[in-house]
């Protein structure tokens, strides 16, 4: 794929995929912030990249396996809040929208916790403010 043809990143950052989540998913770069990791995990969902989702999940909360539903189509991401609560801890609140098959759009509102270990950010867990 040529640089000129690099598509916009699915995470909605406004950057090209090659200049945003692409290098993270290709394990050529490490997320510098929890928000960058969160965005890359959204892009991994869009691409059905199960391996990346597991690798970016903290080992203490990581599931043994991960089901990715092929019928899910991700529609967009909006990051609402990114708070670095400690040197190695951060919270990212976001809304992601998706559709299953021909169903109506579903709104996923999550506040996720992230921790940094050995210079790498990991997803820890999430709560759902609307639930
Ligand atoms: Zn991105």
Automatic annotation (TrEMBL):
InterPro entries: NTF2-like_dom_sf, YchJ-like, YchJ-like_M. Signal peptide: none annotated. It comes from the Bacteria. Residues 33-126 form the YchJ-like middle NTF2-like domain. Pfam families: YchJ_M-like (PF17775). Belongs to the UPF0225 family. HAMAP family: UPF0225 (MF_00612). This is UPF0225 protein ACFOM9_10765. It comes from Luteimonas notoginsengisoli.
